[in-house]
Amino acid sequence: MRIVESFNEGWRFHKGDIKVNLPVDKGPVYGQSKTCRKMIGPAAYYYFDEPDCYGRDFEIKSEGWEKDISLPHDYVIDQDLNKQENNALGFVHYDNAWYRKHFSLEEYKDKRIVLEFGGIAGKSTIYLNGCLVKRNYSAYNSFCVDISDVAFFDKENVLAVFVDTSEPEGWWYQGGGIYRDVNLVVTDSISIDRYGVYAPYKKVDNENWAIDFEITVRNDSETEKEFSVKSLLLDNEGREVLSVNGQSKVDAFSKKTVVCSEIIKNPNLWDTKNPYLYTIKTLLSVDGEEIDEVYENMGFRTVEADANKGLLLNGKKVIIKGVCNHQDFGLTGLAVPDNIVKYKIKLIKDMGANGFRTSHYMNSKAVMDELDRQGMLVMDETRWFETTAEAKEQLKELILRDRNRPSVIIWSTGNEEPTVMSDVGYKIQRNLYNFIRKYDKTRLISHAVCHTPEKINFFDWCDIIGINYNLDSYEQVHKNYPDKLIISTECCATGTTRDWHYPSNNEGRIRDNDRDTNYWFLGREKSWRFLNSAPYIVGCYQWDSIEHRGESAWPAACSKSGAIDLFLQKKGAFYQNQSHWCEKPVVHIVPHWSFAGLEGYDIPVTVYTNCNELELFLNGESLGKQKIDKIGHGEWNVSYKEGELKAVGYNDGKEVASDVRVTSGKASRLVLTSEVPVSNSGKDIALVTCSCVDKNGNPVYDAEEFVDFTTNEDAFIVGTGSDTADSNNVKNNSRKMYMGKISVAVKPKKDIKKIVLYAHSQNCGYSVIEIDIKD
């Protein structure tokens, strides 16, 4: 049976290039011009890669190597920011690097052996035992490498990976290294192909759905093989709902697809509020023996883009309240643990969002799995808008991996490509459109266009029109394509700094309040009003959900457009989006109410709400009521006086929600709060927020404590972060607090039951938290 073994542990790592001199004699050059291409240097089998002065022989050393590195791994994040480095790429320096792993395959002789890489940041070249086995030219696509032919079964194998970060692939933080999971997959010579189970379906009538199980079997042996396959559809409790069987033959060194069809009655439907998932369990048998087994999730739902009725999910009109999202996390770079992935998407969902755009590349399997589970409507985007063999292979990988996912409703061929204004872009889109249809005929196809959308015929090859910004072009685009819906694939992009409630300045601070940046980057309220103004507009993917590294202006480490900050703390825009997108009553006051020294000065007070009336109180005295538009907010200028500021929201005269800010005293105690569940897998991290309270227990929103963190021997601190304008290395265990909050990432060792985190500041003393680790 199939064996899937994590290959994340036990790597060796060297940051920087390793110079290998060209031999002066013919012999070494001749020898390296064969299958085993590398006989000297870090790709070679016998290269010495132990850390400095390892063991007793101090004359034998290999400088710069680290041992026992675990994946996922982003080595670029581990540095101070430098103003002299590129601002779009995050003010960090990018080095090349090497990875090596020693391993044995003795028990797998005569098996097919494949390495699956989730993603390597940078161009990568992969060698096994000195033999070149793969070159990959993108940081974002997953890929596999069949190593069966060059693997050793009678001695140790050595895998070497070179990472070249010299040429950026985007205008955002690029990271560097093997930053997603690596798995070793072992099968018999006949097996179910990679992404070899596809289950397209069609609603036949109100009760019946026809489902086709397309099962692709590969034969890597030299003889024809007869086989049988069985697919079982399991509900979300693991109970069998239906099963299908098929038989066929597959030629030597070939593939064969078997199609088995069945009808399912009244399946549970997947939608954004009840994302019901089924599991397909597929078995492969040869000569009556089961030899392979794979599992694939899927869900039943219908999606229609109707120019008259709108975007329909399961026959009901839906407006996409979506966000764009880069993959990095402020404390770990591109190497984002699965439990943090889950938490990020939960935050986005809690904000009221129901949509997610994978801007601007193939996201990890962990991200996509969570989008399925949490009920998000996904625009799934490929990195390169090209018809090269390389770009098409990456697009094919994306489609084959994600075409069973109910969350994915739109394939995106790219973002903001200038060629859309010419025949070049038109031809590329036509080519890619038809290429996608070879592998999936059920989803919409689009592209995020920003260049003169009202003047181009590019949308001939889009099922739904995607426009970045350019709100003034929508009416003309609709006149040009009256039978197609329009979605804002990017909007807003208005920057703010978490809890900064003073005028914007030149030190990386922007008032935490909705605003228009320019005529393109309009505020959230103005944008959402417009997007609700016409029936042919079906929502948006707002730029963006969470601040990401890069695209920044010194001293800021990140873009400021997110509704959640770089370290996963909520900004005012988080609550504004809730007021636009949530059904539950929302009232949220911006700012805090601790402005000692500004007594008598007017403080702008914004209250985000979806209630139809607001009233603001200062120390129990009403400052007046305001009628609130359906997409609107309350706003007062309040002469500052310490005490209690309270906002009350009313619907039809009845109080339904409220929010309070209380003037705090000086910080007297640190408070540690665990934000996410943590497993004992050794892969998760604990995310802790360190905040301050005064002697009465009131939050001190503007606290500026300098805090030292430490943990017990069962864990280590991965990173700390607070101020997005702090240029110090996130790996530091000490951090100056910005606006009363520091985020701390702590990684437990494998199989640990509990970890302890300590925090200390000069004014507040010690605080401690014990975090239980789940089995």
Number of strands: 46
Helix content percent band: 10-25%
Shape assignment: globular
Low-confidence stretches: 54-60
Rg, alpha carbons: 28 Å
Mind summarizing the main beta sheet? 8 strands, parallel, barrel
Provide the spatial order of strands within the biggest beta sheet: 24-25-26-27-28-29-30-31
> What is the overall number of helices?
8
The proportion of residues in beta strands is 35-45%
Average pLDDT works out at 96
Q: Give the termini distance in whole angstroms.
A: 26 Å
Structural class: mainly beta
Characterization of this structure:
By secondary structure, the protein is mainly beta. It has an 8-stranded parallel barrel with strand order 24-25-26-27-28-29-30-31. Strand 22 (310-313) and strand 23 form a beta hairpin. Helix 2 (338-350) packs parallel to helix 3. The relative contact order is 0.08. Mean pLDDT is 96; it is low at 54-60.
Relevant terms:
775 residues; 8-stranded parallel beta barrel; 6-stranded antiparallel sheet; mainly beta
In short:
With 775 residues, this protein is mainly beta.
Topology of helices and strands:
Elements: E1 3-6, E2 11-15, H1 26-31, E3 65-69, E4 97-103, E5 112-117, E6 120-121, E7 123-128, E8 131-136, E9 143-146, E10 157-164, E11 177-178, E12 182-187, E13 190-198, E14 201-203, E15 208-219, E16 225-234, E17 240-250, E18 254-265, E19 278-286, E20 289-298, E21 303-306, E22 310-313, E23 316-317, E24 320-324, H2 338-350, E25 355-357, H3 365-374, E26 377-381, H4 389-402, E27 408-415, H5 423-437, E28 444-449, E29 465-468, H6 474-480, E30 486-490, H7 524-531, E31 537-542, H8 572-581, E32 587-590, E33 602-609, E34 613-618, E35 621-627, E36 633-639, E37 644-651, E38 654-662, E39 669-674, E40 686-693, E41 706-711, E42 715-721, E43 734-736, E44 741-748, E45 754-761, E46 765-772
